[in-house]
Amino acid sequence: MRLLVLRFSAFGDVAMTVPVLTSLAKQYPEIDITVLSRPFMQPLFAEAPSNIHFRGVDVNSYKGLGGLLQLFHELKKEGKYDAIADLHDVLRSKILRILFMFSGAKVAHINKGRKDKKALVRVHHKVMKQLPSSFTRYEEVFRKLGYPVKTNFHSIFGETKGDDSLFQAVTGLPDGKHWIGIAPFAAHKGKRLPEATVARLIQELSDHSDWRIFLFGGGKAEKELLEALAINNSNVQSLVGKLKLNEELALISHLDVMVSMDSANMHLASLTGTPVVSVWGATHPYAGFMGWGQKTSNTVQTDLSCRPCSIFGDKPCWRKDYACLTRITSKQIIDKIETIITA
């Protein structure tokens, strides 16, 4: 049986498919699984079971209905797919799955629970309850296709850690100190720590002589800020732009703990079995995006009646002050770090 899995973005959402797909592949070795996603996602699947294949596609090259028809025919030429799992459920993936359905494939798609999510983030009469995780929603798609899966996953590296030779030239080898990752930024303002808090956190972490602090981020502005913080504090190194994704994953697997916002780095750490101190602002774990295997006791959040106000952190703060983030202190985060590394 050949299965085509559709999930084009976002980075964290694609990362969250890995535990489920790995479990599916191991529980049903007779299934030949192809994951269709953006090319730069490939390292997420580099350590996957042999019956998982990654097919990178630049979706911007297949614009409009004509472009999707072209992609459909290209995929058909690569062999017959018996089933399609749409883990994205956007217009692009809907059109592709319909085309495959008309060609005889069995099709199932994710239920994103949009109604419940709207109730969670509305200003008045919020319904504060834990919603199904993305992992559960992905599992449900495969159940509909006739392949119920129980996700059982520790790390993309199994019970070991990533190859330290992949990052040795940049960081050196693990040296007996506690290695701590800090990823204080995210794509949207509602999920980013204020720069003053970030600076204070890094300064206080650097005071621990037996800790090494690695800063993670992306983009020019983050690169400049994190490099400046690294220069001004001992035991701190910025990794922005210095490692490829596969090298970064290997390094993250050697961390004692990762501090991350509700963003991609939380999920990268989760894929390597690394504990995460996750920091939540406008968003909330109730929406179902907590990293695989992470503990809610390791979250840092501000108790406000307006939270959560956004599923993705992209909505403007109706209070105008982003209190959900500005009220978070460096001490709260460091206390969580210490709890993990002294356990």
Q: What is the CATH superfamily classification of the largest domain? A: Glycogen Phosphorylase B
End-to-end distance: 45 Å
Strand content: 5-15%
Globular, elongated, flat, extended or rod-shaped: what is the shape? globular
Task: Tell me the CATH topology of the largest domain.
Answer: Rossmann fold
CATH class of the largest domain: Alpha Beta
**Mind telling me the C-alpha Rg?**
21 Å
**Which sequence of strands runs across the widest sheet?**
8-7-6-9-10-11
Count of individual helical segments: 13
Average pLDDT level: 97
Tally of strands: 11
Low-confidence segments: none
- Tally of domains: 2
Structural class: alpha/beta
Reading the helices and strands in chain order gives EHHEEHEHEHHHEHEHEHEHEEHH
**CATH hierarchy: architecture of the largest domain:** 3-Layer(aba) Sandwich
Label this structure with key terms:
Rossmann fold, 14% strand, 2 domains, alpha/beta, 343 residues, 11 strands, 13 helices, five-stranded parallel β-sheet
Model description:
The structure is a single chain. The chain is α/β, with parallel strands linked by helices and 343 residues long. It folds into two domains: 2-144, Glycogen Phosphorylase B (Rossmann fold, 3-Layer(aba) Sandwich); 174-341, Rossmann fold (3-Layer(aba) Sandwich), CATH 3.40.50. The protein has 13 helices and eleven strands. It has helices at 11-15, 17-27, 64-77, 91-102, 114-121, 134-144, 168-171, 195-206, 220-231, 245-252, 264-271, 323-326, 330-341; strands at 2-6, 32-37, 52-56, 83-86, 106-109, 178-183, 211-215, 236-238, 257-261, 276-279, 299-300. Strand 9 (257-261), helix 11 (264-271) and strand 10 (276-279) form a beta-alpha-beta unit. It is globular, with a radius of gyration of 21 Å.
